[in-house]
Amino acid sequence: MANLHSLVLSYTARLNEMIWICEKQEYRAKLRYKGGLLTATIVTFIPGNVRIIQVTCNPSDKLPKLIFTLRAIYNFGKDNYDKSTAYDVMKWILSPPEAPPAKELAMRGKK
Questions:
Q1: Adjacent-strand bridge partners of 99
Q2: By C-alpha distance, which of 73, 45, 43 is closest to 55?
Q3: 3-class state of residue 51 by DSSP
Q4: Cα gap 16→28, rounded to integer Å
Q5: Which end of the chain is flanked by fewer CB atoms within 10 Å, N or C?
Q6: How much is the pTM?
Q7: How far lies 47's CA from each of 68, 72, 73, in Å?
Q8: Cα-Cα-Cα-Cα dihedral sign, residues 108, 61, 102, 49
């Protein structure tokens, strides 16, 4: 749930500019991003594991969807510490690869 919350906040900050409305004494979101695919990568550290989740969204779609992809899970504790695993995690943090194209799951239609 924390991953979902952080991703939604990240997208909200990228998509909108917060404008102060003096008359109403409140902030309003003004859309500033309309073209192309937007990707966010979240790296979470769970005791003994590192999980990498990548989320893509195309805000210019009529009904934009968040597409979550679990990209990697690494066992990473003091019992199984490995330098190559640490380097792989650092590569994800510093330069995440592009997300693969989204695939829709085929649904069976009613006959």
A1: none
A2: 43
A3: strand
A4: 9
A5: C
A6: 0.59
A7: 22, 15, 12
A8: negative
